[in-house]
Amino acid sequence: MAKSKKKAEVVFLVCEETGDINYILRRKPGGEKLKLKKYSSRLRKHTLHIEKKK
């Protein structure tokens, strides 16, 4: 029997300073939460964004 593939899940990147959802990603489940420096349009600068599931 073949192994079943894990489906990609939808993940939101939320700005730590404003709480806005600025980015939506699809990624494989498992692993650590993403912590990336991304651009926040409200603050007009790069801030830390953290992964949040729906």
Mind explaining what this structure looks like?
It is a single chain. The chain has 54 residues and is mostly beta strands. It has one domain. Helix content is 0%, strand content 52%. The protein has no helices and four strands. It has a four-stranded antiparallel beta sheet with strand order 2-1-4-3, with no helix packed on it. β3 and β4 form a beta hairpin.
Spell out the blueprint of helices and strands.
Elements: E1 9-15, E2 21-27, E3 35-40, E4 45-52
Antiparallel strand pairs: 1-2, 1-4, 3-4
In short:
0% of the residues lie in helices and 52% in strands. The chain has no helices and 4 strands.
Mean pLDDT rating = 92
Estimated share of beta-strand residues: over 45%
How many domains, in number, for the residues? 1
The geometry reads as: elongated
Assign a percent range to the helix content: under 10%
End-to-end Cα distance: 32 Å
The total beta strand count reads 4
Largest sheet: 4 strands, antiparallel
Q: How do the strands of the widest beta sheet line up side by side?
A: 2-1-4-3
Q: Residue ranges: pLDDT <50 for 5 or more in a row? A: none
Radius of gyration over C-alpha positions, nearest whole angstrom? 14 Å
Structural class: mainly beta
| H/E element sequence | EEEE
Count of discrete alpha- or pi-helical segments spanning 4 or more residues: 0
Pfam family, one: Ribosomal_L33
Keywords: Ribonucleoprotein, Ribosomal protein
Protein name: Large ribosomal subunit protein bL33
Family: Belongs to the bacterial ribosomal protein bL33 family.
